[in-house]
Amino acid sequence: MRLFGKNIGIAMTGSFCTLAEMICEIEILIKEEGAVITPILSEMVDETDTRFGRAVGWKDELERIGCKPPILTIPQAEPIGPRGMFDVLVIAPCSGNTLAKLANGITDGSVLMAAKSHLRNQRPVVLSVSTNDGLGFNAKNLGILLNSKNIYMVPFGQDNPKEKANSLRSDVSKIAETVVEAMFGRQIQPVLLQYPSIMI
Ligand SMILES: Cc1cc2nc3c(=O)[nH]c(=O)nc-3n(C[C@H](O)[C@H](O)[C@H](O)COP(=O)(O)O)c2cc1C
């Protein structure tokens, strides 16, 4: 119960293959760590049915495991900072799209608005990356975020270097530990994972 009573925002973006895994991790945060979880869904996750699941299905699952009602729009996310709603904001999974926009100060969606609003209070944002271009176009953005104040990384590595040389993926089972460390202002180490420990 390392996170008992802590208010945590979990922002989910369009790495659809990671969403089912995230439901399990969120359930652990609630049931084993005592966290109070408010989901924030990117517009993509809120609206898109894919081969990994239906949009309505993710929302049903979040409700079933005991999350608060989800934040889905920029106006709903805007009060996060002014009301001091979260102790920590976790973006998991963090898509390449959201990573790139966050690193470049773009705020055109619910999750990015949540991050901007939360960061104004100098509180921690934890990123769990999951993107095929982490060592490609997005490597520079990852570099910016690694060197940014109040941003912490869930340990990540190459998940399939032989077939997807630029792909990076965080180990979602390390989210709770990363959040605990981030609340003390520390980056969990090591931040780089060895293949094949995270290969899917
Ligand atoms: C089935 C499916 C799977 C996807 N998986 C990923 C992924 O693992 N990582 C990623 O960065 N983008 C992935 N994408 C692309 C993102 O969903 C897309 O870039 C989207 O604009 C992300 O928006 P968001 O960051 O606002 O959620 C996937 C798209 C689809 C349709």
CATH superfamily (homologous) name: Flavin prenyltransferase-like
Q: What is the string of SSEs from the N terminus onward?
A: EHEHHHEHHEHEEEH
Unreliably modeled segments: none
Taken together, the total number of domains comes to: 1
Overall CATH class: Alpha Beta
C-alpha geometry: globular
Q: What is the annotated CATH architecture?
A: 3-Layer(aba) Sandwich
Describe the protein's topology.
Layout: E1 7-12, H1 19-31, E2 36-41, H2 43-47, H3 55-64, H4 74-77, E3 88-94, H5 96-103, H6 110-119, E4 125-131, H7 139-146, E5 151-153, E6 156-158, E7 168-170, H8 175-183
Parallel strand pairs: 1-2, 1-3, 3-4, 4-5
Antiparallel strand pairs: 4-7, 6-7
Helix pairs in contact: 5-7
Bound molecules: flavin mononucleotide.
What can you see in these coordinates?
The chain is of the alpha/beta class and 200 residues long. The chain has a single domain, classed as Flavin prenyltransferase-like (Rossmann fold), CATH 3.40.50. The protein contains eight helices and seven strands; from the N terminus they run βαβαααβααβαβββα. Strands 1, 2, 3, 4, 5, 6 and 7 form a seven-stranded mixed beta sheet that branches. The chain is globular and about 45 Å long. The relative contact order is 0.16. The model has no long low-confidence stretch (mean pLDDT 97). It binds flavin mononucleotide (FMN). Residues 13-17, 42, 44-45, 50, 52, 95-98, 109, 130-131 line the site of flavin mononucleotide. The site of flavin mononucleotide has 17 residues, from helix 2, helix 5 and strand 4.
